[in-house]
Amino acid sequence: MLAVVQFKPRRGARNANLVSLVKLATAALEGGAKVLVLPEMCATGYRFPNPEVVRPMSEPPRGPTFKAFQPLAKQYGAYIVVGFVEDFEGKLYNAAIVINGEGKVETLYRKRLLYIDDHTWANPGDLPYPVFRTPYGTATVGICMDINDPRFLTHLKRTKPDIVCFPTNWVDEGDNPQGYWMSQLRGWNGYLLAADRYGEEDGVGFCGRSCVLKAGTVLVSGPPEGDGWWGVQPEEKPVSSG
After folding, report:
1. Which end of the chain is more exposed for a tag (fewer CB within 10 A), N or C?
2. How far, in Å, are 170, 191, 215 from residue 188 at the CA level?
């Protein structure tokens, strides 16, 4: 099963958020998920005014976030993609780690195209777009604004992955973002696993509506608000947390 988690983090409460996220991930994995995507910066919150505020929640790739999800990936033989704040040699990145079914770091990706709220603290990503194998074919990772980046879209056209793992904190601008995501990916026929947050943070609202899309069709979708998980089998039968 291909699945996404939706969650509203409490800003700055990384450890408490990780406890809640692990519960949601466990439910999805028990439901059959073999590729599971969680939102961008899902354990820290998103809006930070400067590097000094976010730095206490930053971590190396094998830090607290990895340690929280590694046992689950290994137990269920699943790929887990989770967004976090990376500290690499003193530089901060909006990043995502991919943990494979053996409980090892499969790959790491750093968001390349930064949003307004990233520019206050994050460095632009400097790693190549990853391509890795999953039980359902090849996969890559893009984080939120990367879907607007011509470099990322060129990468999709060139490598033609079966799956795009898409952790996001999509700002609510009054419409459903799924149509926009589909329009950006027109011509690519794989699965988009969009894991979004919801609710408000510092006066800014986020969309929710986490979903699995394929070839311009919404296969399963979460609501604008509410924690949960949603997934589809490769034959496109939707499953959700209810």
Report:
1. C
2. 21, 9, 7
CA proximity to 185, closest of 152, 211, 207? 152
Q: What are the residue ranges spanned by the domains of the chain?
A: 2-240
Give 104-164 as a DSSP string: SEEEEEE--S--HHHHTTPPPP-SPPP-EEETTEEEEE--GGGGG-HHHHHHHHHH--SEE
Cα–Cα–Cα angle for 211, 216, 222, rounded to 5 degrees: 15
Per the CB < 8 A criterion, the answer to whether 32 and 231 are in contact is: yes
Q: Are the CB atoms for 35 and 25 separated by under 8 Å?
A: no
Residue 94 tokens, joined: 């909006």
- Spatial CB neighbours of 185, under 8 Å, sequence gap ≥ 6: 147, 153, 156, 164, 192, 213, 216
Helices (H), 14-50: 14-30
How many CB atoms neighbour CB 57 within 10 A?
23
Class of domain 2-240: alpha beta
The residues, ordered by sequence, that sit 6+ positions from 120 with a Cβ below 8 Å of its Cβ are 48, 49, 50, 51
Place of tokens 């601008």: 173
pLDDT along the chain (242 residues), means of 10: 97 94 98 97 96 96 97 98 97 98 97 97 96 96 98 96 97 94 93 97 95 93 96 69 49
Query: What integer pLDDT is reported at residue 77 of this predicted model?
Result: 97
Residue 224 CB-half CA count within 13 A: 11
